């Protein structure tokens, strides 16, 4: 599932020159927890102001929200999400950066995505990525063995098939934050000593 599939497309923006009080009222009216700060020009970066910014930077210090401006408390440039990014990687981005919401942008502003969107709309319960990856790895291994049996263990087709397997295994290991100790190709080489230990092809 991709970010754009669960993103909120009813985008609420605010000017950087607006007061914090105006931004808070806009959040209440639109029932959102964050506002995307409009760009001043096409080559400008987007910003973001969240309810956390208001609480931590205004309320916590007893400052007057009517005299403070959005640009004083916003994050700019803000972290953005590519609409084609898998939901699992969006969640990891949030975990690594400590943010809860980000604009979805590709050439233009398409929407916003939040932790709430991930929990409420994604299919992480029905189709956890780790399970799907293991299924794909197993199928790729079976395909690689079939290709090698048909084309020969020293063929380019065989090597390319094992490359696919290793890429999937590397992704699974990265997801688990584990080191890949032995690849499926290395196990294949143990079974078939005449298989290429490196990517060496017959002419």
Principal-axis shape? elongated
Mean pLDDT, to the nearest integer, reads 85
Strand order of the largest sheet: 1-2-3
Cα(first) to Cα(last) distance is 41 Å
Number of strands: 5
The portion of residues forming beta strands comes to 5-15%
Number of helices: 9
Any low-confidence stretches, pLDDT <50, length ≥5? none
Q: What is the alpha-carbon Rg in Å? A: 24 Å
What structural class do you assign from the helix and strand content? mainly alpha
Main sheet, how many strands, which sense, barrel? Answer: 3 strands, mixed
What percentage of residues falls in helices of 4 or more residues? Answer: 40-55%
Order of helices and strands: HEHEEHHHEEHHHH
Can you characterise this structure?
The protein is built from nine helices and five strands; from the N terminus they run H-E-H-E-E-H-H-H-E-E-H-H-H-H. With about 200 residues, the protein is mainly alpha-helical. The longest helix has 23 residues, at about 130-150. The chain is elongated, with a radius of gyration of 24 Å.
How is the topology of this model organized?
Layout: H1 3-6, E1 13-14, H2 20-30, E2 34-37, E3 47-50, H3 51-57, H4 70-73, H5 87-97, E4 101-106, E5 108-114, H6 115-121, H7 129-151, H8 156-176, H9 184-191
Parallel strand pairs: 1-2
Antiparallel strand pairs: 2-3, 4-5
Helix pairs in contact: 7-8
């Amino acid at each position: 599932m991709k970010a754009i599939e669960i993103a909120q497309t009813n985008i609420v923006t605010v000017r950087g020159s607006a007061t914090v009080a105006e931004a808070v009222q806009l959040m209440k009216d639109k029932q959102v927890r964050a506002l995307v700060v409009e760009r001043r020009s096409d080559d400008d970066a987007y910003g973001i102001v969240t309810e956390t910014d208001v609480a931590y930077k205004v309320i916590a210090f007893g400052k007057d929200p009517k005299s403070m401006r959005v640009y004083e408390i916003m994050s700019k440039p803000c972290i953005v999400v590519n609409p084609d990014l898998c939901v699992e990687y969006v969640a990891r981005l949030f975990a690594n950066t400590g943010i809860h919401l980000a604009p979805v942008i590709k050439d233009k502003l398409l929407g916003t995505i939040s932790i709430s969107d991930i929990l409420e709309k994604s299919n992480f319960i029905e189709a956890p990525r780790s399970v799907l990856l293991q299924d794909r790895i197993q199928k790729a291994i079976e395909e690689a063995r079939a290709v090698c049996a048909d084309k020969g263990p020293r063929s380019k087709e065989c090597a390319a098939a094992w490359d696919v397997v290793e890429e999937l295994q590397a992704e699974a290991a990265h997801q688990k934050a584990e080191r890949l100790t032995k690849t499926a190709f290395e196990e294949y080489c143990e079974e078939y000593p005449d298989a290429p230990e490196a990517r060496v092809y017959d002419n």
